[in-house]
Amino acid sequence: MPTNFTVVPVEARADAAQTQDGGDEAAGRPEAQGCPEGGAGPEPDRPSPSPGDGTPREVSPFLGNVELEHKDFLEGKNMALFEEEMDSNPMVSSLLNKLANYTNLSQGVVEHEETMLTAISMSAIATNGVVPAGGSYYMISRSLGPEFGGAVGLCFYLGTTFAGAMYILGTIEIFLTYISPSAAVFHAEAEGGEAAALLHNMRVYGTCTLALMAAVVFVGVKYVNKLALVFLACVLLSILAIYAGVIKTAFDPPDLPVCLLGNRTLAWRSFDVCAKVHYGSNGTAPTVLWGLFCNGSLSDTACNSYFAENNLTVIQGIPGVASGVVLDNLWSRYTGKGLFVEKGGTPSAPVPDKARPSGLPYVLTDITTHFTLLVGIYFPSVTGIMAGSNRSGDLRDAQKSIPTGTILAIATTSFIYLSCIVLFGACIEGVVLRDKFGEALRGQLVIGMLAWPSPWVIVIGSFFSTCGAGLQSLTGAPRLLQAIARDGIVPFLQVFGHGKANGEPTWALLLTALICEIGILIASLDSVAPILSMFFLMCYMFVNLACAVQTLLRTPNWRPRFKYYHWTLSFLGMSLCLALMFICSWYYALCAMLIAGCIYKYIEYRGAEKEWGDGIRGLSLNAARYALLRVEHGPPHTKNWRPQVLVMLSLDEEQAVMHPRLLSFTAQLKAGKGLTIVGSVLEGTYLDKHAEAQRAEENIRSLMGVEKTKGFCQLVVSSSVRDGTSHLIQSAGLGGMKHNTVLMAWPDAWRQADNPFSWKNFVDTVRDTTAAQQALLVAKNVDLFPTNQERFSDGHIDVWWVVHDGGMLMLLPFLLRQHKVWRKCRMRIFTVAQVDDNSIQMKKDLQVFLYHLRISAEVEVVEMVENDISAFTYEKTLMMEQRSQMLKQMQLSKNEREREAQLIHDRNTASAVAAKTQAPPTPDRVQMTWTKEKLVAEKHKVKDANMAGFKDIFSLKPNQSNVRRMHTAVKLNGVVLSKSQDAQLVLLNMPGPPKNRQGDENYMEFLEVLTEGLNRVLLVRGGGREVITIYS
User: Fold this and answer.
1) Which of 5, 372, 683, 942 has minimal CB crowding within 10 Å?
2) Does residue 66 carry a pLDDT above 50?
């Protein structure tokens, strides 16, 4: 389990002593805590770890293993500023030989089943709460999130709309082919032009029918429901007529002759008699069929070879249910396009076909048939299971109506479809079943000829069935689009969320009619129909997925009233849907997935953020929990280490970010990888500052969006900025997903004592990061850093490697150069050599080390000769110490004045209370507690004390340790300026703060001198572990 401990400051006891400088409380700082007056003496000395010590995360031959023989060397003047680092981190000059000699490093070791299963899943989702308008879209989006819901919902909308066009075209085709062929506007002008003329007629009549249906839907859904009852009655009569006709064929099959030439079926359109010759009293005469296959008279003729060798026979197209034809139709016979429709088991003389005959009255297949094609043709007949859910907003009780209606509808239609398939195969000849256009029956509708009492029952039933299906599509699709538009997940569709006062989707109906008109103008939807099936299958697949996800997550809100479901059934339904998509057409399946994927990414990029408690969020939480528990088992390996950054931002009085470029630099450093926590501190109490905290957090999140910083925001309200910063460093993150690096801006106004982020807070933050074994990055002149829109066309990123920090100085430039802002900058590495160092060998070792690290950089070794301390350095150190003493004197005087004023106020208050209690007689003359003489004397007293203090300041002699540190800062600054003044960015080792807290203000001055004159500086302090390795 992740554990988290935070060290917080506590109230100091009344008898606790103050720290030596009088500025900090002793609580929580045992090294600065004195003994209470009159108390026991200090405890015996015991070893205490220095800040940052602890169990090392990774065995390292470099960090924390400094050789003792270098102790005398470290006492020199040139590197005195870094002597606090020498306890744990070695000098680069003494380490390069080991780094280059990499061997010293330790190496880190099918349809109905599918629709029924979908209906079960949909029933579970529909009964798990109120389902408003939107139906399937609403279920998917609330279960899988707005991205999946919007993508699948829009695809399902397009499928439903084009299906409406397909139903309307089917209505017109039945009308022009079987009801009123004479109503055609366009006629075939040449032989073979019937198909083109039919398409033109379908476009004209389809447009008129679409306008009529759209007007009915516009008037109101109640009229659609009334018409639906009429259409349902016609369909039921048609179905009953089919069953009655099947029963009738058992004892009185209809007379429906089919002409066969050999085993080939002939199209009975251009001839009247299925015979080669007529036998009459006057002899034999050739028939019309003879004239089609032969040229000339009976005596002198040249006939088609197959016609000459084979006989003509007449069979019954509907032999009846008792004929045993079911055995012939039991097995599949798939054929290619343009082949003859042949009757199996019929004798035929084989004749080689030199060329495919043209103009002969054969019945030919118009398409290549196979199982997947038949699945694609049959599937649209079972796509109506969503008709009820699409109109969920119009249902009185959707939770009750959707499961009951859908499951009963599927059960009823499944029985009808399967029984009709079996009965058709038992009653009708196979050649007639494979005759798509009924050419062998003189163009008659075979099911109409089977039905009883009249073929018109089937024709009228089919007409009203397709008409009703088109109306249902025009009713459900606009409501689906309106629900998507009202959710606002697709910005440009929001206009279609408006409608009439009663909620009718007027604008959505208009768009649906326009898209449907496009399908009608295409007329031939054979090429469009497969992708529509893909859209439907995709919708069903995600309904099953939604139910499976919700069941497996076991969220408290998952309490469907429909109990007959299981996640395995949903998973099986999802698998069947996916399999059917690729069985029908793998390229159409990929096309549909590509369309849905584009919509998904668009919604993810442009859509509004929605929190619907969907299952994907639940899966993310479960995955995050699992990953966090796995990460908690141990620290990351060096190869997986990357800076997980806690960015410390400062806010102004309006809760606006003071240094937005810090977030720009974070985005450039991280490039969207790893963990980023943006933290800030508000001073005060949470009860008083919660409104300001919310506003500040909104400002930070907004800026993170502008700067494209991917991460989390964490804002803390604390009694002081110091304590809040410490809390963030200790407790930000969760489990293994905690920061390992702190990024902050340099406090430019640190010399101002009243600054909220004073030098005291900054130095204590440096100490906190060291104690927490976290790396620290301090950006100086951060407002000069580039934005994400800037591009450096040239320049250098200079690294000044003085003290080994685990490789942070090597890794950071490499990460920065991955971003387009710094991509064209070249990397240079400078290291410092002392008098006794071999500069040539150091350069070779560093080049070998960089080669093994796979980092390309220029290398230069800078020699710093140890010379006498200059007068400038001495004077600068003296001025620094005088300023520090003066600040202390001024602060002490200010405290004394405040204490005196408080004492006078307390005395006056006590005197007034006593006077009211005792009420003595008022004397003639009142003796003032604070007289003019006392005031003058006190002023002279304070002035004399201040003058004495200032005299002591001017007679001060600088501390030799401070002189050596200032000497290092001045010399190193001069060297850096000479080499890197024009660099785009300078990375420099950040010296650690002194162990003696009384020198904190001097530490700030050292850093100021060290970086003086440089434009962009990044001070880097390692976290106590190796972060880069030469191994793969």
Assistant:
1) 5
2) no
Tokens 């075209």 belong to 169
pLDDT at 549 over 70: yes
The SS3 call for residue 715 is strand
In the chain, the N- to C-terminal Cα span, in Å, equals 32
At residue 681, the 3 state secondary structure works out as strand
CA quadruple 746, 751, 757, 758: dihedral, nearest 10: 110
Kindly give, in sequence order, each residue whose CB lies less than 8 Å from that of residue 569, ignoring residues fewer than 6 positions away: 117, 120, 121
**208-243: per-residue pLDDT in tens?**
999 999 999 998 888 888 888 899 899 999 999 999
Listing from the earlier edge strand, what are the strands of the sheet with 858-863? Answer: 712-718, 676-683, 645-649, 741-745, 775-780, 1017-1021, 985-989, 796-801, 826-833, 858-863
Interacting residues of 355 by C-beta distance below 8 A, sequence separation 6+ = none
d(CA 124, CA 139): 10
Q: What is the mean pLDDT of the chain?
A: 77
38: which 2 tokens?
């009159």
Phi/psi of residue 138, nearest 5 degrees: -60, -45
* pTM recorded for the entire structure: 0.61
Strands of 264-265's sheet in order across: 264-265, 257-261, 312-316
* DSSP-based three-state secondary structure for 54: coil
Tokens, residue 545: 């997925």
d(CA 993, CA 1004): 9
Helix (H, G, I), strand (E, B) or coil at 906: helix
Three-class DSSP category at 828: strand
What pLDDT does residue 245 have? 94
pLDDT given for residue 102 in this prediction: 44
DSSP string, 62-98: STT---GGGTTGGGSSTTGGGTTGGGTS-BSTTTHHH
Whole-angstrom distance, CA of residue 69 vs CA of residue 870: 29
pLDDT on residue 743: 92
Distance CA 936, CA 941 (A): 9
